[in-house]
Amino acid sequence: MNKVILMGRLTKDPEVRYTQTNNTLVATFSLAVNRRFVRQGEERQADFLNIVAWGKQGEFCSKYFKKGQQVGVIRKNTN
User: Fold this and answer.
1) Which residues, 6 or more positions from 41, have their beta carbon under 8 angstroms from its beta carbon?
2) 14: burial class by Cβ within 10 Å (0-12, 13-18, 19+)?
3) Fewer CB within 10 A of the end CB, N or C, for the chain?
């Protein structure tokens, strides 16, 4: 089992769309995650990750997430 926990800020409000086949809600947004370590003489850097949330999780994100808000995202893979 693999598990990823990300903590970062939204770069813009989530975008919402629906699938054509079964009308499932899909919310997409970008998360800016600061790197833990800074090299001496450099500014703090961030990684920008694209996140996709489906169904009820996507509905929650579209309703409560806003640009600049700090959020946590957990992805658990049980394969």
Assistant:
1) none
2) buried
3) C
Beta bridge partners of 49: 31
Q: Residue 72's beta-bridge partner residues?
A: 7
Q: Comparing C-alpha atoms, which of 53, 64, 1 is closest to residue 27?
A: 53
Q: Which amino acid is at 72?
A: G
Task: State the 10-residue block means of pLDDT for the chain, 79 residues long.
Answer: 92 96 96 88 90 95 96 85
Neighbours of 54 (CB within 10 A): 13
Query: Which two tokens mark 66?
Result: 């806003």
* Residues in the chain, overall count: 79
Q: What is the DSSP letter of 48?
A: E
Query: What backbone torsions phi and psi does residue 73 show, to the nearest 5 degrees?
Result: -125, 130
pTM score > 0.85 for this model? Answer: no
